[in-house]
Amino acid sequence: MAAIERKADANPTKAFFVRIITKDISLEDCILDLIDNSVDGAWRCEGSRPIGLQDGTDLSKYSIMIEATPDKFSIIDNCGGMSLDDAVEHAFSFGREATEDHDDYSIGVYGIGMKRAVFKLGGNIRVRSTYDDKGTRSAFAVPINVSKWLSNDKPPWDFDIEEDELLPNNGVEIVVQELTPGAAGAFESPAFLQGLRRTIARDYALHLNRGLRISLNGSEISGWKIELRQSEDFQPMRLEYKDKADNEEVSIEIIGGMAAPPPESNDPEEEADNEKQPHGWYVVCNGRIVLAGDKTAISGWGTDDWPNWHPQYAGFIGIILFTAANAAALPLTTTKRSVDITSDIYRRARPKMREVSTKWIAYTNQRKQAADEAKAKEALAVPVSIYSVAKRATVALPALVSRPAGERLANVHYSVPVSRLKKLAKELGGINMSNREVGLKSFNYTYDDLVGGE
Asked: Is residue 401 included in any domain, yes or no?
């Protein structure tokens, strides 16, 4: 049968491509992608070496300033800048070629972070860069009018590059105007901005704690201070080893133990109220936290012989750090906000994670029968920075001696509207009382009234 000379058009459209790369990523994740590029720039200036717990690199000379208002978004850094060759060859392309060189120890993998971020944010974009070009400072700008660019699908899908004035420091400035309705609405919300601030403080803690400065709307962000408790009875684990993914070497560090004593109550509602204690597992890839406080099957809870997370286990923190020269070897997803559970290196690490988790589970079970002894020992454990924790193959927790049981105790659990509970707490003398305290006081009050003294 003779072939017809005409071809069926299978070429993508720009609008389809933009919709696909921006559809499944949140606005917050887009901003983190832009921060990643700046952090990678700072790290490149410092020699692109691994960032582990023992690394003492000083990043205090680098800053990232973010402005997010309903009218404009901007991010400005002094992290070395993007070269003209980088802009021409790959920074604005949609994806990386398999043979393309990568930046060592970066967090960027697929080459789409900046593009999808700015397209998600708005329709009028200007990317400026000032960089060192063989001893001479050079500058250029890439202006992008999204609606004009989308109007023509014919290749090549290029962006114009034009000469520009030098920025005050070598670095990148991205300004986005004509914000999308989603971006404008989010940047008008104090709750969104506060959540973004908390996420940056947590996810870039390893960089912020080395002096990197990140500000949001003129206010500097302090990094999350990561600590575990340590004493003669409580010794966190800290294990280091190497593995390989597709012939790429990956360095792995696991650290875990007690960050706070277990709770007095196992009430899930009380744990939900306690956002200040970030319990669970954390996964870090090339210095960036990509999974935070996980209590799901992703970090092993509820799989094999590992029980589901229970409020009883609160107080535990485990951190696993993966570091690789080639970011493609890291077990992270494209959004960099979760873990690829099919990754071989992650799968091989999970038994080591389970070991420290199950020891904490066993301790909290023993603690029920020896609460007074446990509390006395826990009170002696002092917070220690994870950077100061000594290497130890496994976590050390005290062996508790069960005491003969006294009168049997009963758990009383019921749900009431929060507004009513708060009103009762106020009448009982403490608007900030925990749910458990309100329950105990109301029970004792009723008991004394109806049953009387013993």
From this structure: no
User: In Å, how far are 109, 243, 298, 310, 336 from 347, measured between CA atoms?
Assistant: 20, 11, 10, 23, 18
277 and 314 co-located in one domain: yes
- Is residue 264 within 8 A of residue 314, CB to CB? The reply is no
Nearest to residue 259, comparing CAs of 279, 285, 274? 279
Q: What angle do CA 279, 285, 291 make, to 5 degrees?
A: 30
| Domain boundary residue, one of 366, 388, 410 | 388
* CATH number, domain containing residue 165: 3.30.565.10
Would residue 93 count as lying in a domain? yes
Does residue 253 share a domain with residue 200? Answer: no
398 CB neighbour count, 10 Å cutoff: 20
Do residue 178 and residue 30 come from a single domain? yes
Residue 114 sits in the same domain as residue 214: yes
What angle is formed at CA 44 by the lines to CA 53 and CA 157, rounded to 5 degrees? 125
Domain hosting 215: range is 14-220
Closest to 449 (Cα-Cα) out of 407, 441, 437: 441
Give the C-alpha distances (Å, rounded to integers) separating 328 from 98, 105, 147, 243, 322: 11, 10, 33, 14, 12
User: In the structure encoding, which two tokens stand for residue 277, read together?
Assistant: 């204690």
**202 and 91 together in one domain:** yes
Looking at the fold, whether 145 and 58 belong to one and the same domain comes out as: yes
pTM to 2 decimals?
0.82
Structure tokens at 293: 């406080």
Judgement on whether residues 170 and 51 belong to the same structural domain of the protein:
yes
Per-residue pLDDT 10s for the chain (454 aa) are: 666 777 776 677 777 767 776 777 889 989 998 999 999 999 889 887 767 777 778 899 999 999 999 999 999 999 999 999 888 876 666 555 544 455 678 876 545 667 778 888 898 999 999 999 988 999 999 998 888 877 887 777 788 899 999 999 999 999 999 999 999 999 999 999 999 999 999 999 999 999 999 999 999 999 999 999 999 999 999 999 999 998 899 999 999 999 999 987 655 555 554 445 689 999 999 999 999 999 999 999 988 778 899 899 999 999 999 999 888 899 988 778 889 999 999 999 999 999 999 999 999 999 988 888 999 999 999 999 999 999 999 999 998 877 655 566 677 777 888 888 888 888 777 777 778 778 888 887 788 777 875 5
Of 196, 220, 244, the residue that ends a domain is 220
| Helix (H) or strand (E) segment spanning residue 95 | none
